[in-house]
């Protein structure tokens, strides 16, 4: 299961209702952030979201509304005597993190590890892998080097114990665990293969666009995603601002075969974003708008994200 909390859903200048961009993710015991705009740490604290357990922060680009919360969060972690390393990913991350560290007399007590993310071309890069999931990135189209990120949960095999018992007499037991681990086992002189008694449960795929106009890279990484969280600064894309629009996001979601579209990063000009959502829904019905502190719980094979708040 993947839990997400939208810490900030505004763009450029924050408003009374929308903080700067940041999304908290938790998968089992792994905690991370996508972007870290101003005010992120206060949102983390108010939501009791375990900010000290965050190990990785993925910055889409170095416009201040997407990273300015890093300074405060790092200082708080330092004052709370953090010891474990914190990884920060982003285009040209090594250069920008080095500059951030130069703004303090002593720097943090814990290790800060910057990881540069490729921002040219259209190739998808795997940035981090665990036994449960991986984090991918792809360059996108903005006014500065920028990337989109994807969380991809590993596919899992689910043994159909009714089928296994009917075919081989195998009941629920430690042998089922060995079957999943090894791919095949011997039971009462019979070879039981995992592929003959199991179904594949596709892992979750969640994509975050950051700031971008629609582009081939974003469409590529969004292919068949369960959720696409997309830049909808305006109703329609603005070339002069290099920002996406709600209707364009909906068209991309439809082309990419996305299951659910969540619009975010709204301009403060929109006191009510309902018209943007309605326009997007004409193209892609499974569209909703994010709001600050909106909580989602996502499970494999779930038709719609469960909105907890």
Question: What does this protein structure show overall?
Answer:
With 309 residues, the protein is α/β, with parallel strands linked by helices. It has ten helices and 19 strands. β11 and β12 form a beta hairpin. The longest helix is centred in the N-terminal third of the chain and has 11 residues, at 69-79. The radius of gyration is 21 Å and the shape is globular. It starts with a strand and ends with a strand.
Q: Which CATH-level-2 architecture of the largest domain?
A: 4-Layer Sandwich
Number of helices: 10
Shape: globular
Mean pLDDT value? 90
Query: Beta fraction of the residues?
Result: 25-35%
- What is the CATH homologous superfamily assignment of the largest domain? Ribonuclease Z/Hydroxyacylglutathione hydrolase-like
Short description:
The chain is an alpha/beta fold and 309 residues long. It has helices at residues 40-46, 64-67, 69-79, 93-101, 161-168, 174-182, 194-197, 216-221, 246-256, 274-283; strands spanning 2-8, 22-27, 30-34, 54-58, 86-90, 112-116, 125-129, 133-139, 147-153, 156-159, 184-187, 190-193, 198-201, 205-208, 227-231, 260-264, 287-289, 294-298, 306-307.
Main features:
alpha/beta, Metallo-beta-lactamase, Chain A, 30% strand, 309 residues
Write the layout of secondary structure elements.
Blueprint: E1 2-8, E2 22-27, E3 30-34, H1 40-46, E4 54-58, H2 64-67, H3 69-79, E5 86-90, H4 93-101, E6 112-116, E7 125-129, E8 133-139, E9 147-153, E10 156-159, H5 161-168, H6 174-182, E11 184-187, E12 190-193, H7 194-197, E13 198-201, E14 205-208, H8 216-221, E15 227-231, H9 246-256, E16 260-264, H10 274-283, E17 287-289, E18 294-298, E19 306-307
Parallel strand pairs: 3-4, 4-5, 5-6, 14-15, 15-16, 16-17
Antiparallel strand pairs: 1-2, 1-18, 2-3, 7-8, 8-9, 9-14, 10-13, 11-12, 18-19
Helix pairs in contact: 9-10
């Amino acid at each position: 299961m993947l839990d997400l909390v939208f810490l900030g859903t505004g763009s450029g200048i924050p408003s009374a209702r929308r903080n700067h961009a940041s999304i908290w993710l938790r998968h089992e015991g792994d905690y991370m952030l996508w972007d870290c705009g101003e005010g992120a740490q206060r949102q983390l604290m108010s939501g009791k979201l375990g900010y000290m357990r965050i190990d990785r922060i993925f910055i889409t680009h170095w416009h201040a509304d997407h990273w300015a919360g890093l300074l405060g969060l790092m200082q708080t972690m330092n004052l709370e005597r953090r010891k474990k390393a914190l990884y920060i990913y982003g285009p040209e991350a090594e250069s920008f993190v080095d500059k951030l560290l130069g703004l303090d007399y002593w720097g943090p007590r814990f290790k800060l590890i910057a990881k540069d993310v490729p921002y040219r071309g259209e190739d998808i890069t795997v940035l981090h892998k665990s036994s449960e999931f991986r984090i991918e990135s792809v360059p996108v189209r903005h006014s500065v080097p920028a990337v989109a990120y994807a969380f991809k949960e590993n596919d899992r095999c689910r043994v159909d114990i009714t089928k296994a018992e009917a075919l081989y007499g195998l009941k629920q037991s430690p042998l089922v665990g060995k079957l999943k681990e090894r791919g095949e086992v011997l039971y009462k002189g019979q070879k039981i293969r995992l592929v003959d008694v199991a179904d594949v449960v596709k892992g979750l795929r969640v994509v975050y666009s950051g700031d971008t106009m629609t582009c081939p890279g974003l469409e590529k990484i969004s292919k068949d995603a369960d959720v696409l969280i997309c830049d909808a600064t305006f109703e329609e894309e603005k070339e002069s601002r290099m920002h996406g629009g709600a209707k364009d996001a909906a068209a991309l979601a439809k082309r990419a075969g996305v299951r659910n579209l969540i619009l975010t990063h709204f301009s403060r000009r929109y006191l009510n974003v309902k018209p943007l959502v309605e326009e997007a829904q004409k193209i892609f019905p499974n569209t909703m708008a994010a709001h600050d502190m909106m909580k989602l719980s996502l499970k494999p094979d779930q038709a719609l994200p469960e909105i907890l708040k």
